[in-house]
Design goal:
The structure is a homodimer. Chain A is mainly alpha-helical. In chain A, about 80% of the residues lie in helices and about 0% in strands. Chain A has one domain: Methane Monooxygenase Hydroxylase, Chain G, domain 1 (Up-down Bundle), CATH 1.20.58.220. Chain A is elongated. The C terminus of chain A is likely disordered. At the A-B interface, helix 2, helix 3, helix 6 and helix 7 of A face helix 2, helix 3, helix 6 and helix 7 of B.
C-alpha cells in the first residue's frame, strides 16, 4: 500500500468518527430536552424531540452506508476494520438512545400537568444528569480511543443502577400511597427505566472503545444491581 | 475472481447465516421459557434462562468476529457485503432479545407466588405467542431472503402493539383497584413492555431482510400505536 492510500483511508475514517460524534450530540440533546420537557411540562420541547428523532435515525443509516462504502473501497484489515465495524455498533446504540429519548418525550406530553407530578419527577432529573455525563464521556472515549476514560464510564454504571433502584422504590411508594398517582408514576417508572437503559448504551459504547484499542471485549457480566435485586421484590418473595 | 473463491465465500456466508439461525433459536427458546416461568412459577426455568443468556451473548460476539474475518478474507462488495453487515445488525437485535428474556425471567422469580398474579399474567402469555411467531418468521425471512414473509412480519407488528396497549390498560386497572397488586403488576407491565420490544426487534430483522434484497430500507416511521396513544393518558390529559 502506498502512503497516499493510507492517508485517504485515515481521512475517511476521521469523517466517519466525526459523523458519529455529531450523531451522539443530537442524541444527547434529545435526552436533555426530553427530560427538561418532563420537568417543566414544555410541550414544544417534547414535540421537538419527537420530530428530531428522524434525524438521528437518518444519521444511523448514513453511518452504516458510509462504513460499508469505506470497507468496500479501502478494504481495511485488522484494527482498522474493527474500528469501522464498531462504529456501526455504536451508531446502533445511539439510534436506540434517540428512541428512548423520544419515548420520554411522548410520556412528558401525557403526564404534563400537576405540580405534584413535577415533584415526583425530580429523581428522574438527577438520574438524567448522571446518564448524560456517562453518554458524553463514552463517545469521547470511543472517538479519541481513550481507554482510561472508557474504563471510568464502565465503572460508574453502578451509580446509575443504584439511583434508578432507589427511584423505582420511591415511585412505587407514591403509587401505593395514592392510587391517583398510579398512571403518572407508571409513566415516570418507564422514563426512569429508559434513562437506565441509556446508561447501559453508554457502557456498551465504552466497551467498544476498549475493544477497538485492545481487541478484547470486556467481561461478559459486569456487576448489575437494579430494581430486580432485593429492592421492591421483598414484599412478594415467596420465602 | 475464480469460481473457487466465489464458492468459498458462499460457504462462509452460509455458515454465518446458520450461526445466526442457531442464535435465533436460542433467543426464541429463552423468551418461551421465561414466559412459561412467569405463568407457572417454575423457578428452575427462570434460572435456566438467566444462565443461558451468556450463550446468546457469546454467539453475538462470535458472529461479529466471523463477519469481520469474512470481510477481511474475501473482501466482498455490493450485496454480499450488505448481507454480512446486516447479519451483525440482526445478531445485535437477537442479543437484545436474549437480554429482554433474561429480564422477564428475573421478574418471574420475583413475582412468583399467588394464583392471582398468574391470572393477571394470562395477557402476557397471549402477547408472547404473537411475539414469538413474529420473531421466528422474521429470522426465516432474513436467512431465506424471503421478502414476502418479511413484509408480512412488518405488517403484523400493529397487532402486537394493540394487544400490548390493551394489556397495559388492564394492568393499570388492577393496580388502581387494589394497591396490593401494584408491585406485581409493575413487574408484569415491564414484562409486557419487554415483549413489545422483542416484537420491535422482529420488525427490525424483517426490515433487514427486505434491505438485503432490495438495497432499500423501509420507510422511517411505520404506524405505531402503543400505550402512549389515547389509552391510559386520558385521565391525566391537561385539556
Amino acid at each position: 500500500m502506498t502512503k497516499h492510500i493510507v492517508t485517504a483511508f485515515d481521512t475517511d475514517l476521521r469523517d466517519l468518527l466525526l459523523e458519529l460524534a455529531q450523531m451522539a450530540g443530537w442524541a444527547e440533546r434529545s435526552v436533555e430536552l426530553a427530560v427538561d420537557a418532563l420537568m417543566t411540562g414544555a410541550r414544544d420541547e417534547a414535540e421537538r424531540v419527537i420530530a428530531d428523532d428522524d434525524r438521528v435515525d437518518e444519521a444511523d443509516r448514513k453511518i452504516e452506508s458510509d462504513a460499508v462504502l469505506l470497507i468496500a473501497r479501502r478494504q481495511p484489515m485488522g484494527d482498522d476494520l474493527r474500528v469501522i465495524v464498531s462504529s456501526m455498533r455504536v451508531s446502533q446504540d445511539l439510534e436506540r438512545v434517540g428512541d428512548l429519548a423520544k419515548n420520554i418525550a411522548k410520556r412528558a406530553l401525557i403526564i404534563d400537568g400537576t405540580i405534584q407530578q413535577r415533584t415526583l419527577a425530580h429523581g428522574v432529573d438527577s438520574l438524567s444528569r448522571l446518564v448524560l455525563g456517562q453518554l458524553k464521556r463514552s463517545i469521547e472515549a470511543f472517538v479519541e480511543r481513550d481507554t482510561a476514560k472508557a474504563e471510568d464510564v464502565w465503572r460508574h454504571d453502578a451509580e446509575i443502577d443504584a439511583l434508578y433502584t432507589s427511584l423505582f422504590r420511591e415511585l412505587l411508594t407514591y403509587m401505593m400511597e395514592d392510587p391517583r398517582n398510579i398512571s403518572s408514576c407508571t409513566h415516570l417508572l418507564f422514563c426512569a427505566k429508559n434513562l437506565e437503559r441509556i446508561g447501559d448504551h453508554a457502557t456498551n459504547i465504552a466497551e467498544r472503545a476498549i475493544y477497538t484499542r485492545t481487541g478484547e471485549m470486556m467481561a461478559v457480566n459486569r456487576p448489575k444491581q437494579d430494581e430486580l435485586g432485593t429492592a421492591v421484590s421483598e414484599p412478594n418473595r415467596p420465602n
